[in-house]
Design goal:
Radius of gyration: 20 Å
CATH superfamily of the largest domain: Winged helix-like DNA-binding domain superfamily/Winged helix DNA-binding domain
Helix content: 55-70%
Number of strands: 3
CATH class of the largest domain: Mainly Alpha
Structural class: mainly alpha
């Protein structure tokens, strides 16, 4: 079990700029790399999101599925939902089974392809998805609250660049990333 990420510095403790390194150094005593910091922050946000989602009695994976369906604003084919969630189709079947049991989604035949099934949000699923999306945003907002507006804007700009690059890589190479023997992998 992974240890819980430490609480980020707060404005009361002098904020992010004055708090010094908020996390312990790496095992070798060196300051953590940018990638390590991103991973730590991601774990912290994931843990805080999990805490905020706990009252809903829904797993983070189910919350992601509801949010994907909510954001697209339309039903999704099971395979497309699996692709958007970046999980294997077998896993999306189990996930949709659970959400359907809770009355949050329903399966309907695809009118354009008799072999396919579409997943539709129910009214209860839309309500829960919207509440979960708010909870996830609040968890992330807790973290960036230590930054002033200019720093939040700069962080958003930089994370948007990383997000676009990660999305482009996903579109080019899929779930596993580039193969090591792929000359295009650089």
């Amino acid at each position: 079990m992974e240890p819980a990420a430490p609480e980020p510095p707060t404005a009361a403790s002098g904020g992010a700029r004055d708090a010094g390194p908020p996390y312990p150094r790496s095992d070798d005593g060196a300051p953590p790399s940018t990638g390590e910091l991103i991973a730590r922050i991601s774990r912290w946000i994931h843990g805080r999101s999990r805490d905020r989602l706990a009252p809903f009695g829904t797993t983070p994976a189910a919350a992601r599925a509801l949010v994907v369906l909510l954001r697209t604003g339309e039903s999704q084919r099971m395979g497309d939902l699996a692709e958007r969630l970046r999980i294997v189709p077998r896993s999306v079947t189990t996930l949709v089974d659970d959400l359907e049991r809770e009355g949050l989604v329903e399966r309907r035949p695809d009118p354009d392809d008799r072999r396919s099934t579409r997943v539709h949000l129910t009214d209860a699923g839309r309500e829960r998805g919207a509440a979960m999306l708010r909870a996830r945003h609040e968890a992330a907002d807790d973290l960036v609250a230590v930054l002033d507006e200019a720093d939040r804007d700069e962080l958003h700009r930089l994370l948007s660049l990383l997000d676009a690059a990660a999305h482009a890589d996903w579109c080019r190479h899929g779930r596993r990333g580039p193969r090591r023997d792929d000359p295009a992998a650089g």
